[in-house]
Write a sequence for this structure.
């Protein structure tokens, strides 16, 4: 689909979970950049999936998130890498502050840890070719991804499909407390998306881009310090904001 506002800007629908769609997109890009190669690739596609204890989830719940956030990102990158290498360009992968410190179960944090690992290895491999790889680690920004109602409804949906034994172990109060605490935390999300997009622009255009960018006050002041804490301390601090199952201390 061509953008009507500009003759230079072109857009294309891409399904990062479809190898056929990715191959078609790579061919489309190759046709337009030719021998010049591709200067910049920004991988930003992502979904949140369920925010819940891992025990409540199935393999499919994890797979749906990993297919978009991690495996799709990897396949898109590998498909376009020869063009980026030709231009001695940039790869910018959007991970998350929770790719440093996970706050909840499910595929989201796992996928972002994977993005970090893939990007680190890619950065070292491509350095000899003059290609620079950067990781963006945003905190919470106000987008549909962090809709409190969606998180609460997801918890209730998962609760309804749990076996009776698991429901008894956690208690329905866990669902109510989890939904309420998630809503309170998500209200702290920043509406200033420019703080995230500015880091992407720097990673693409700066003469010396950074390997990692923390975007947002929580990424800088909460997640970054927590990532350097010993496990016992970070566990204790995170447990203060997590709901407790029924009958536990």
């Amino acid at each position: 689909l061509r953008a009507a506002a500009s003759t230079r800007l072109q857009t294309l629908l891409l399904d990062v979970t479809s190898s056929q769609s990715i191959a078609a997109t790579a061919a489309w890009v190759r046709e337009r950049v030719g021998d010049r190669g591709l200067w910049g690739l920004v991988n930003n596609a992502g979904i949140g999936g369920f925010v819940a204890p891992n025990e409540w989830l199935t393999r499919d719940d994890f797979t749906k998130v990993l297919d978009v956030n991690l495996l799709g990102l990897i396949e898109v990158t590998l498909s376009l890498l020869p063009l980026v290498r030709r231009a001695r360009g940039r790869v910018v992968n959007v991970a998350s502050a929770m790719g440093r410190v996970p706050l909840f179960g499910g595929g989201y944090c796992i996928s972002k840890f994977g993005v970090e690992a893939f990007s680190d290895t890619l950065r070292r491999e491509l350095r000899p070719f003059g290609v620079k790889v950067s990781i963006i680690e945003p905190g919470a920004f106000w987008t549909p991804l962090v809709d409190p109602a969606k998180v609460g409804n997801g918890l209730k949906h998962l609760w309804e499909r749990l076996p009776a034994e698991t429901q008894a172990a956690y208690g329905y109060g866990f669902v109510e407390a989890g939904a309420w605490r998630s809503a309170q935390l998500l209200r702290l999300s920043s509406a200033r998306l420019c703080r995230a997009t500015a880091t992407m622009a720097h990673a693409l255009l700066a003469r010396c881009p950074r390997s990692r960018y923390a975007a947002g006050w929580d990424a800088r002041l909460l997640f970054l310090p927590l990532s350097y804490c010993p496990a016992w301390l970070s566990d204790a601090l995170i447990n203060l904001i997590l709901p407790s199952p029924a009958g536990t201390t």
The chain has a mean pLDDT of 91. The chain has nine helices and four strands. The CA atoms of residues 175 and 246 lie 11 Å apart.
